[in-house]
Amino acid sequence: MADPAGCCRPCATCLLCLYSCQWITAKKEKRKGLRTTKCDYSWFLSLFCVFLFTLVWLYFAIIILNDFHNFNEFIFKQTKLWLDWSLLLLIVTTVLVTYSAVLLVLALCLQLCGQPLKLHWLHKTLLILTALVVAAAFTGLGIKWAEEWKSARISLQATGPFLHFGIVGGMTLLAWPLASFIYRTRNTGLKVFLLLVYWMVMIALYLVPLGITSPCIMEENQLPPKPALIGHRGAPMLAPENTLMSLHKAVNCDVQVFETDVMVSADGVPFLMHDEELIRTTNVQAVFPERATFNSTAFNWTDLQQLDAGSWFLERRPFPTVQTLSAGDHNEATKQRIPSLEQVLKEAKQSNISIMFDLRPENHSDYQSFVNATLQVILQSGIPPQQVLWLPDGFREQVKQQAPGLQQVYGRKRLQNEKEPLWHVNLPYQDVSSEEIREYRQDNISVNLYVVNQPWLFSVLWCSGVSSVTTNACQVLKEMKHPIWLLPRSTYLMIWIVVDCVSFLVILWAFVLMKKCSQRTRSAESETDVLLTKINSLMQE
């Protein structure tokens, strides 16, 4: 098999070595009669599928980074071991994608050079392992973290147009090795089948934008106001969560509401704490080792004040941003203690920042006394009642009667024939569609969605018209003056038409050029055969 024009034998030999793990020159290959068999083509198809599989998983891995801190907390709760698993996830995923991509590029180059696709058994084994690892990752995602499928669907509103352009580009480039194969094979049925499949896929891709919807495809003057920021446990990327330092950092980020979690100590003092146990965010194992696994509400206020609520932040580094903190911030973090609700309300009043909180644990037998103690502290603090956003559902009617000025925030969607209108709702961002957000906005219902950390997600919700978002990354979202992208529909349609036309022309060019190359190659082979025949005739004479 002669090398096509522009494909040197050393290059072909090198490609064979990497793909087949055999140092076979083109001449030796011809002598040995190596050809690409149906089995080899099956492995090439498997390689292509594994590459797409790993590429889709890479996309999911990037999307779920928005919520990965929750996964880290879940693993810590199970194992009491803290590690930023997102780093491991990205490293493993990148290795798998890179490996399958390199193999695919080698295979396509071999096809263009007219060399056999003899995938080595070691590559075959590694490809199977890659597919199994990614399949296990998707299975685990579906079982333990099913809401991330909704996150992926939402992400398509931000990435859909660009994914479309990228896929069209990739399929357009695929036309070159496809054309090379079609002009080399003598199987007419296979040629027709491949051409039909390829053009059906391309036509479908060309029409995909008709089904792409994104709230960010709009005119500039239609863009809703930027959502307000609510600090999730303060500013947890800049300070230990649920501490006064975290509250101050949130204020510096122009956060309008400090979102936190309240528990009540054994002697009736409401304090800030998210976990039912104190292990993750304090040094309780060192101070009270025999009671380290006790519920947070089992400690009295005197005991709680002995705990260090800041050093863990520097030791475990729950976010990469910890490394960027100044020496002064490090020193301040080590001095943090568990704050009482009274202290936080005082700071919130001075900073003119609202506070929104959950009261935990909801299933506690003394929950009503927790509500009473918390409500008493709020009423005695002197904070304007409109600065307090009340989230707990338990004994809500009692709270409305005793403190009618508090803003009632509901963790559910409104119901049909609702007797009392909902003016504030607080929901996971996965549970509300862009259409529902627009409907709530038209009805003057304030919608807060949590937890929103990535700029792409913030941009989609901004375009949708959400009122506010709860975030860990207030320092990042604060700097955003505009959504990541905003396209008028007319501009998007024009780009779509241009991309599709360019793609179509490039594909035609690829097939025409590869046909000419194939004709030249066959002509050269015919001339070589004629010359060899003459030489043989002369030698026989």
UniProtKB/TrEMBL annotation:
Got a GO cellular component term for this one?
plasma membrane
The membrane-topology field of this record reads: Multi-pass membrane protein
Where's it found, cell-wise? Membrane
The record's section on Pfam families has: GDPD
Q: Where are the transmembrane segments?
A: 41-65, 85-113, 125-143, 163-183, 192-212, 493-513
What terms describe the molecular function in GO for this protein?
A: glycerophosphodiester phosphodiesterase activity
The GP-PDE domain, residue ranges: 227-481
Instruction: Report the sequence similarity comment from the record.
Output: Belongs to the glycerophosphoryl diester phosphodiesterase family.
What is this protein's record name? Glycerophosphoinositol inositolphosphodiesterase GDPD2
